Each structure stands twice: as C-alpha cells, then as structure tokens.
Amino acid sequence: MDSGGLQVSEVSIAREIVAAVRRVPGVADVSPGRFAEAATYGPGEKVRGVAVGRAAGALDIEVHLCALYADSLVLPGLAARVRSAVRQSVEGLGAGLLGRIDVAFDDLRVEEE
Amino acid sequence: MSVFNRLLIILLDLLQLMAAGAVLLTTLGVTPPEQLAPTPWFVDRLVPFTQLDPTSWSWAVGVSILLLLVGLLLLFLELRPGPRGAPWITLKQDGLGRVTVARDGVRELVDREAGRVAGVMEVRSHVEEDPTGLRILCRLSVDPTGSVPEMTQELQQRLKAAVEHHLGRRVAEVSVDAQVAPLVSDRRAGRRVR
Q: In the CATH scheme, what is the homologous superfamily, with its name and number, of domain B88-192?
C-alpha cells in the first residue's frame, strides 16, 4: 500500500506490530505459533508471531501471543487492547486499509515469584 | 504421536495396501504383473503368484484380502479427525476477526485453578466446547483426610468462576471425578499441585 509514494512491505508492518504488541500490558511475548508457524516472510527475513497478508486490497493480520497469567487477566479484553495496538501501528505506518485482525492466545505464562 | 511418526505409518500403510492389492490382482489373474509393477524387481516378486496351486492360491487371496482390510482400517484410523476437535477454543468472532485460545492453555489454566483448592493433590483436566458453552472434565487425586463433597463443590464453583472470568465464555458444566489414589498415567502426566 502506498505511503507518500512508498510501499510499506508486509515484513515492515509485521515488525511494527510485534513491537506494538509487546508493549501491551498483559502480553508476555508474541508466539511463533502452536500448531503451525505464524510468521511474515520478507527477503532474507522472517518475523515470527505475526502473519500479515493482503486480501481484496486490505491487510489481514494474525497475531499469535502468549499472555501473562494473573487473576485480573481477561482474554477478550486483552485481545481488544492488542487489536487497538495493531490498528494504531498500521495506521501510523500509513500501510493502508485494515481487514481482519485475528488474535490467537497460544499460551499463558505465569511469572515466577 | 508425533506428526513424523503418523506420516511414517501412513506411508508404510499405503505401501502395504499397494503390495497387497498388486498380489491380489495378480493372483486372481485380473492384471498381468508387468502392468502392475513399476520396476522389474517388483515384477519378479509378482510372477510366482501367477503359477500357484489351488491351496496356495486360496491362501494368497485370503491373506491379501485380510491385509487390504487391515491396511484400510489403519488408514481410516490415522486419517480420521481427533476426538477432541479443534486444538483451540474460539472466544469471540466478529467482523474484526477472531479471538482464539489454545485448548491446552485453557487446560493448564483449569489445572492451576484446581490446584489452589485445599486437598487437591493431582489434577488432570479436559476441556470440551459445545453450543451451550464449555464443558470441563476434571480428574483429581485428593487428600483422604479432607471432605471430598465439600472439596468438589468448591472446585466446581471456583473453576466455573475462573474460566468464565478469564475467557469470557460461559461454562455449561464442570464434572469432577475425585479419587484418593494417585491418577494412573494414560495419555499424559497429571499436574501435581502439592
């Protein structure tokens, strides 16, 4: 998609999304995928945890992550915050229209005391 | 079973089906070995089946059919979908996309919550999904000095509340199967909580 005449690559979008998702409170980290690898591929580069694709002119994004387990954890609420972070990072890049944002919680991580 | 082992079994099963089928067709005289076999080596193995005496012919046909049936059964068992369905649970699906959680992650959450109940020694849980909500099946090894009815009631309430809070999905049923003896190992080790 165009941004000031420059096309933002899927792998650049994926990198931004990974950084944004990692900053969301309640997210332990992105996950490479539990059942199949979730990644975005670029020339000589692979970004794990986020799959970015284009369909019908819109960006479809799949985020795989590991949530921090706590008594206050509410997965649908965390998914909404993750989606919001994804939306902001894509809009910040001017990467184009957003389609689906799928969020997959592959694991729950407990912080050792 | 790992994916590699499963693929290996399917491959060997297909080879067995091909060999048994080729032997059966050759023995019955339906197709000459030269048309069935991809290599001269295989043709040499099939040719003797064209010259069998009546007793050997009956055995060859019988064993081939048996091997074909066993091979087809094994292939069916290997290729059928698993009894537990999808390995994830859908929490939400709307126009924005889908939110899922790994079924094993939910199971670990259930095991952790169950382990917080006093008197629970070991837990092995299973989570199923149907249109009415989630169904949690929990097998426990419990402390024999405690009251099992009180313990299971507390566990049911706690698991229902915790899973509904964390996942935002309705829990339709929490089944508890408690025993004093340690859980017998079957498909996986139980989680020890004490």
A: Cation efflux protein, cytoplasmic domain (3.30.70.1350)
